[in-house]
Design brief:
Elements (H helix, E strand, L loop, with lengths): L22 H12 L20 H13 L2 H5 L9 H6 L2 H5 L3 H10 L1 H4 L8 H14 L3 E2 L19 H17 L5 E5 L5 H10 L2 E6 L2 H11 L5 E4 L13 E9 L1 H13 L3 E6 L8 E2 L4 H5 L4 E2 H4 L12 H23 L22 H11 L7 H26 L2 H18 L2 E7 L10 E7 L2
Parallel strand pairs: 1-9, 2-3, 2-5, 3-4, 5-6
Antiparallel strand pairs: 6-10, 7-8, 9-10
Bound molecules: S-adenosylmethionine.
């Protein structure tokens, strides 16, 4: 039996709501947005009550918005011709006429967040942007957990800098959540940094589960003889047994593993902290919803569409990173033009056949040389490269513009999948928080599910 735990109250960023942690006031404002009676998003688990849940209402609202644009979600924009959905909605000339600076701003912040700065936006697109903003605002941002988690700066010495803030937050959150747990099980533990530091900070038994043998080997080396154990196992095939006293953690538990972690927690009735990522990493052709609510709203997307919920050039990630991703996409476009000049007509995805996709982050000359080698073609001439560079740039300028409405839906899809998982927990008697626990600059995959059995 898991004893009650005291959780930090979280602020609300719903619409005009000014609440900074008082669940009841926040709930009143959430009513406004949802247009129905909902429970406070932040449930006090120490109350140990069966509660009327908010997440199905939020998921239903988001699924409604997404279903109206199912045709946009269905097809990635890779062509420089206007997509049918843009033509039928009358958005094409608006998108074509955006300046380069406006496009860069939308790529950086998201079209939905730029709508107010784009007065010529067609009303139907402005309405979609407004719906997306309202839905995203239904999720709270965690109050930063106490930085004092007992770990010295030296503890992080083997942790890559991009992971440090993530791990520090998760360790601090775990301090607040794991009052009655005796062991932490880190599923998809990678190099084992989180497992190691959770154990060092919490002074509890800790175990990592990792299917990649080489990562597990590194984790064991880093842990040393007194550190946590890492078990090599594919959690989808050989599900770890959890039991009373366990606390399940998954930091960027990707694709199917995220769904599996929910099932594992439910089967053993243990609390969990899950930060999801990469929903497209699934064996199934189509992700199936876990929750009854997800099934009711038909939350199903094919694998090739799920990548949208994991946009790599992600809002808030920093100008350089977004610009870098866009330059790579432009180079890819130019390589495709170059291949077409040679009579080889391929889709954008097929340009990377036989090469490491990272070659597109290099200059066109380097990328085209790699592609030629992989396809046993003569290297490109200067003239071919100049032509491909110019045509690729012109084509990519249009692809970028036509990509904006679809890209603006990615975060909402990600949230819908997270909420499907949250609903699955709630339907089985869990109290659940769903929050952004890191700033996007730390990692754009920052949505956490914090769940604990409440009955
Ligand atoms: C995105 S990485 C995150 C690693 C680590 N938690 C971190 O945050 O640095 C996901 C990890 O989960 C592991 N993984 C994916 N599916 C798995 C499965 N079915 N069973 C065990 N490990 C899995 C991968 O090998 C990878 O190391």
């Amino acid at each position: 039996m898991i004893a009650p735990i005291t959780l930090p109250a979280t602020g609300c960023n719903v619409g005009k709501c000014q609440d900074k942690g008082d669940g009841l006031r926040r709930a009143e404002r959430c009513d406004d947005v949802l247009g129905r009676d909902v429970h406070p998003l932040g449930v006090d688990p120490s109350a140990q009550q069966t509660h009327h849940s908010a997440w199905p209402a939020v998921l239903t609202r988001i699924a409604g918005t997404l279903s109206e644009v199912a045709d946009i979600i269905a097809g990635r924009t890779t062509e420089h011709t206007a997509p049918t959905w843009s033509e039928t909605r009358g958005w094409t000339s608006f998108l074509r006429e955006l300046s380069d600076a406006q496009v860069a701003d939308c790529e950086q912040r998201g079209l939905h967040r730029c709508a107010h700065d784009l007065p010529k936006m067609p009303p139907t697109l402005a309405k979609l942007c407004s719906d997306v903003n309202q839905c995203l605002a239904l999720i709270g941002v965690s109050r930063p957990p106490s930085a004092d988690n007992g770990l010295s700066p030296q503890s992080y010495s083997r942790v890559p800098s991009r992971k440090r803030a993530q791990i520090s937050t998760l360790v601090s959150l775990s301090h607040e959540l794991m009052r009655s747990s005796t062991r932490v099980v880190d599923v998809g533990s990678g190099h084992g940094h989180l497992t190691r530091l959770l154990r060092a900070s919490l002074h509890l038994d800790a175990m990592g589960i990792e299917r990649n043998t080489s990562l597990a080997k590194t984790a064991r080396e880093l842990a040393g003889p007194d550190g946590p154990r890492t078990v090599v196992a594919d959690a989808l095939v050989d599900r770890p047994k959890l039991g009373p006293g366990d606390f399940a953690v998954g930091l960027h538990a990707c694709g199917d593993l995220g769904d599996e972690l929910i099932r594992m927690a439910l089967d053993s009735r243990v609390p969990l902290l899950l930060v999801s990522c990469c929903p497209q990493k699934t064996k199934a052709r189509e992700r199936q919803p876990l929750s009854s609510c997800g099934k009711r709203v038909a939350l199903r997307w094919p694998r090739d569409v799920l990548g949208l919920a994991n946009l790599s050039a992600c809002y808030g990630e920093g100008v350089d990173r977004v610009r870098g991703a866009m330059t790579a996409r432009e180079t890819r476009c130019a390589v495709r033009v170059f291949l077409a000049q040679r009579g080889i007509h391929v889709s954008l995805g097929e340009t990377s056949q036989g090469v490491n996709r990272r070659c597109f982050t290099k200059d066109l000359e380097v990328a085209a040389a790699h592609v030629c080698r992989a396809r046993e073609l003569e290297p490109p001439s200067r003239h071919e490269l100049e032509q491909a560079r110019a045509d690729g740039k012109a084509q990519f300028a249009l692809v970028r513009r036509f990509s904006l409405p679809r890209d603006a839906l990615g975060r909402l899809m990600e949230l819908a999948i997270v909420l499907d998982r949250a609903c699955a927990l709630e339907e089985q008697g869990y109290a659940v928080r769903v929050e952004e626990i890191f700033p996007a600059a730390t990692t754009p995959r920052n949505l956490a599910i914090i769940g604990w059995p409440s009955r």
